[in-house]
Amino acid sequence: MAEHAKLGVRLNRICCIGAGYVGGPTMATIALKCPQLEVVIVDMNEDRIKRWNSDELPIYEPGLMEVVKACCGKNLFFSTDVKKGIEEADIIFASVNTPTKTQGVGKGRAADLRFIESVGRTIAQYASRSKIVIEKSTVPIKTAEAIARVLSANEAAAGGSKNFWILSNPEFLAEGTAMKDLDAPDRVLIGGQDQDAIQVLADVCANWVPRDRILTTNLWSSELSKLVANAMLAQRVSSINSISRLCERTGADVKEVARAIGTDSRIGPKFLNASVDFGGSCFQKDILNLVYICQQFGLEECAAYWQQVVDMNDYQKIAFTSKIIQSLFNTVTKKKIAVLGFAFKKDTGDVRETPALMVCDMLMKDGAIVHVYDPKVVIEDALTEFKYHDLEVNKNQLIFSKSPQEACDGAHAIVVVTEWDEFKTYDYKSLYDKMMKPAFLFDGRNMLDHAALVDIGFEVHALGKGQIKSSGGQSQIPDFVTRAGSGLLSGGYSP
Ligand SMILES: NC(=O)c1ccc[n+]([C@@H]2O[C@H](COP(=O)([O-])OP(=O)(O)OC[C@H]3O[C@@H](n4cnc5c(N)ncnc54)[C@H](O)[C@@H]3O)[C@@H](O)[C@H]2O)c1
Ligand SMILES: O=c1ccn([C@@H]2O[C@H](COP(=O)(O)OP(=O)(O)O[C@H]3O[C@H](CO)[C@@H](O)[C@H](O)[C@H]3O)[C@@H](O)[C@H]2O)c(=O)[nH]1
């Protein structure tokens, strides 16, 4: 069994604690790229492990099934036996969830570190040799110190002499493109205090990642960089979303503005798509975490700066949904509304912090009957997310449809929340024919051909655009309505 000459750790067996959206794809990629290594992913969630070992993986990610199929049972294993996983591997990744605290000190902002702490304690309990422990989870700065203290205190109490080298190796994959991101990452970041331990992980990654893309830093820079990367990305979305509101008031088109500014190489074109909001399990939680850390260090102005990114995100969802209600003559009571897409972005079934949640909730609170169609999301996951946010769902008001036709049939409006590619391919004429009139369409992703939809007869509202005209340049709203300005029945229509 290969052993590191200086550290004395065995190099051919990796264990990952946490078989979620990160642990699963990340370790499957290591198994594929490093056939000489054995990779074991352990999780306390039995159902999740059962699904990883089946043909129905617990998460949907393009390309993931192929990699799991290629490696599972050869050098990739999924198990609930955490003890054995820890005992047998000397390189251990912690890829457990780090959600926002929902109670106590720091409630609603600080990261809940109980899962990461429990990993430290479990390693302390079962480790019979020295180990390299790698933080894969996104954690607040200085978490490595906490893990090190848990491990060393237990080791001292047991009178042992094992070493634990803690590394930070944050993950930058995005859902929906995880396998591509892992295959060709912009960079791999490794933070640590011991250069030999850093080299062990760098050598694993160098099996497929060019060395110049493997960045090494001290522990604290690495931990903080992950939070900052997410904060900067989310900040771009909030910035363009704030401009989308201004565009709607002024007649500028947010897509044109994004293109105009994005061609400046200093700004760049990515992450400038206006949307209903940035969703997902990471952005909000990580910014709130950053806000909390700034506050902990007395940096109130810095905290307020980043808090505004989250506040803008909340405002955008409310503004988008309010516009739907206003446009539908200020009431959606008993009206069928078709919501296309429930996932927080395309190519995933993940609904954590999806904007669809607040959009549906606001519509239902106003009395609407919401019919959702999403190609991947299952209703149980959606209901769990409503519950997690303490949002009540009347089951007669939230229906998951099996097809877009079923969702749109008899609806007053279509609301596009997720940018699934298939939404571009629908026959909107036949959907329109079966809808109530006027038939409204709200494009929360600016992804459809708006002029063509106006040609069909839809009244189209797109994020960050003023009044949408037909392909022949005709206005879609009768003159007397636009002249009447923002009266209630005109739906508060802006130019
Ligand atoms: N989801 C993403 O796209 C993404 C990307 C980059 C980083 N991250 C970060 O990675 C971490 C994991 O995220 P995720 O989305 O994979 O979470 P997840 O909830 O999908 O998976 C975490 C898993 O850890 C398991 N777990 C928790 N404590 C455990 C313990 N003590 N022993 C065994 N299993 C345990 C849970 O049962 C769960 O299955 C988070 O810190 C997150 O912020 C997530
Ligand atoms: O121009 C844009 C880009 C994104 N979004 C939205 O922003 C959210 C997040 O999108 P994305 O970043 O693509 O997906 P995530 O899977 O949340 O990935 C982010 O969060 C991960 C977890 O930390 C990081 O690893 C990734 O690097 C980071 O991109 C989604 O709702 C997107 O629809 C926009 O509205 N407009």
From TrEMBL:
Its EC number is 1.1.1.22. GO terms for cellular component: nucleus. NAD(+) binds at residues 18-23, 43, 48, 96-100, 137-138, 175, 282-285, 352. The active site is at C282. Residues 338-450 form the UDP-glucose/GDP-mannose dehydrogenase C-terminal domain. The keyword Oxidoreductase applies. This is UDP-glucose 6-dehydrogenase. It comes from Cladocopium goreaui. The lineage of its organism: Eukaryota, Sar, Alveolata, Dinophyceae, Suessiales.
